[in-house]
Amino acid sequence: MNAEAADCIFCKIIAGEIPSTKVSEDEDTYVFMDINPGTRGHALVIPKRHTTDLTTIGPADLTSVVLKAQEIAKRALSSLPADGVNLINCCGAAAWQTVFHFHLHVVPRYAEDGLAVPWKPGQGGDAEVIAAAAEALRG
Ligand code: AMP
Ligand code: ZN
């Protein structure tokens, strides 16, 4: 285990050194309830192998985590039951990441849960800025 993993709260959860409300685990992933849920049933899906964020996770672990998140999302819809689900990943402190072990939030949504996206959908953006950003993303 490297130094970053040794200090990692989610690695400690996987190792059972810190308690968690486990939903499930398999060879590659661990699923547990968020301690500070945005809505009822908010769960976190993490790879067992420590990795910092979206830029460092390997393709096999990313695939395992996404597929597991899909499974949990379906179960949230059928069993809680939720009306919808958001999958959220925060990559970097500027994007609200606070725990630097890659994780997907599975956030069940309910018709009247009051959560709102932090930008204003449907407002229309500056076409030149959008085009320039697209050019930057094309690399
Ligand atoms: P993020 O801001 O995307 O890095 O999300 C980190 C999430 O981990 C937050 O939603 C926290 O509530 C959650 N969290 C932090 N510590 C624990 C813990 N010990 N058990 C369960 N969830 C935790
Ligand atoms: Zn970790």
Query: By CATH's scheme, which homologous superfamily applies?
Result: HIT-like
Annotation field: number of helices = 4
DSSP summary, beta strand count? 5
CATH topology heading: HIT family, subunit A
Unreliable stretches, pLDDT < 50, 5 or more residues?
none
Ligand catalogue: adenosine monophosphate, zinc ion
CATH architecture: 2-Layer Sandwich
Ends apart, CA distance between termini? 35 Å
Biggest pleated-sheet summary: 5 strands, antiparallel
Write down the CATH class: Alpha Beta
- The tally of structural domains comes to 1
Helical residues, percent: 25-40%
Percentage beta strand: 15-25%
Structural class of the secondary structure composition? alpha+beta
Strand order of the largest sheet: 1-2-3-5-4
SSE string? HHEEEHEEH
Mean pLDDT, nearest integer? 96
Report Rg.
17 Å
Shape: globular
GO molecular function, one term: catalytic activity
Protein name: HIT family protein
InterPro entries: HINT (IPR039384), Histidine_triad_HIT (IPR001310), HIT-like (IPR011146), HIT-like_sf (IPR036265)
Pfam families: HIT
